[in-house]
Amino acid sequence: MSDASFDQDSIAGNGDASFGDYFALLKPRVMSLVVFTALVGLIVAPVPVHPFVAFCSILFIAIGAGASGALNMWWDADIDQIMRRTQKRPVPAGKVHRNEALAVGLALSGFSVVFLALAANFAAAFLLAFTIFFYAVIYSMWLKRSTPQNIVIGGAAGAFPPMIGWVVATGSISVESVLMFALIFMWTPPHFWALALFMKSDYKDAGVPMLTVTHGRKSTRRHIIAYTLLLAPVAVGAAFTSIGGPIYLVAAVLMNAWFIKGAFDIWRRDETTAEADGYKVEKSVFKFSILYLFLHFGALLLEAVLRPYGLGGWS
Q1: Where are the beta strands (DSSP E) in 214-289?
Q2: DSSP readout, 39-104?
């Protein structure tokens, strides 16, 4: 049997898929981040939203995120089979047929967009549709396999959810929603490049032009510190808008100081040292970067919750 036939057979599906396998198509970990940031975007908006409308809107945004994940798994089935980090996903593992992933992705895309329009407004539905298109087509089909800037530009897909939540509430885009978008957008490159530093062989074997593959780890380390320094003023700057306040400011200053320190630690390291300790620092910074994002949006949420009691915000 040829390698090509093996690849085709192993992503054909064996008919034994469970509910859990289909749920895994939706990338639940990514979905959890989408739900949280979209919810924060909705809650910090200056316009109150009926709890039932808010619940339905977040549900449909989550389904849209899941649709994007399914479409990504359909398209990336061939390289997911090669990369150790993704080999256990439902399609490369042979549990779900590749065409089933496509059908699930398309069906959920249409469902989520239509029902978000009905539950909230057409502006939010349009933005959700564009987000799905951006992730599935612009990032997955084009950027990911064609340029080392894949993560930089493609990061926009993960940055839209808080903006969608804001539009659900207000029907429009504002400076605050743009700053929430920018926070995730600028955070994405150093977050994924830290991962790529200790996962380089996966991307190289799959033919994905990640920065570590095209420019090497030394260049990637420089890019991480550069983007982290650019990220800090965006993150801290949000404190001085209507959604910020002293709680967020303290959290942002501390988190960014720590993130910058971690980026400098990565920048100073050479490959001999990194390989000797199993990329300990790089793995630590990657894990912290996840906490970094949740704490920023958590602080924004706390400001919004305390604001009615006169404890949140600058007022």
Answers
A1: none
A2: HHHHHHSSS---HHHHHHHHHHHHHHHHHHHHHHHHHTHHHHTT-TTTTTSTTTTTSS-HHHHHHH
Q: What is the DSSP string of 12-49?
A: S--S---HHHHHHTT-HHHHHHHHHHHHHHHHHSSS--
Phi/psi of residue 82, nearest 5 degrees: -90, -40
The one-character DSSP state at 238 is G
Cα 12 off chain centre by: 28
By the 8 A CB rule, do 110 and 136 touch?
no
Q: How far is CA 77 from the centre of its chain?
A: 19
Give the type of residue at 108. Answer: L
Q: How far is CA 196 from CA 80, 140, 192, 201, in A?
A: 15, 17, 6, 9
Burial class (CB in 10 A: 0-12, 13-18, 19+), 244: buried
Any idea what DSSP says for residue 107? H
| pLDDT tens across the length of the chain (315 residues) | 334 333 554 555 555 778 898 999 999 999 999 999 999 999 999 999 999 999 999 999 999 999 999 999 999 999 999 988 888 899 999 999 999 999 999 999 999 999 999 999 999 999 999 999 999 999 999 999 999 999 999 999 999 999 999 999 999 999 999 999 999 999 999 999 999 999 868 888 888 999 999 999 999 999 999 999 999 999 999 999 999 999 999 999 999 999 999 999 999 999 999 999 999 999 999 999 999 999 999 999 999 999 988 888 887
Structure tokens of 300? 């924004």
